[in-house]
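pls read this protein.

:::
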Amino acid sequence: FKLQFQLRNVRERLAKALVEKGILGTERQNFLLFDMTTHPLSNAPEKQRLLRRLQGSVLERDPRRMERRTLALLVLAHSSDLLENVFGGLGDDRYDLAMSRARDLLDVDPELAAAKAGAGGSEMIWAVLAAFNKS
């Protein structure tokens, strides 16, 4: 129960930060018996920029040399079952290549990758992937 509360708190803080940056908006929607705050996308070009950045990092560079923020974005997309959406706008050949490269990267043993990362600062990202893989 405590973990669910903490995750909800993180989700709310992230949504608030994205609203402040102008990427998301805030709306109240009525779902039969209760009102709920939703955060629809209000900055579509920013979403497209992120998608292109992630696609380019996986397709055009060695995924193992990916910068930390992009690696974190890839791990989050994988953990949220959104990788298909990230690479969905690509052609069939590029989609297959992107998915295979992403799978190769995500199938690496996170503990070994964290040990190799050393001073690179991506140990936490690999630890998060290990935690998602165990659940």
About this structure: The CA atoms of residues 68 and 120 lie 8 Å apart.
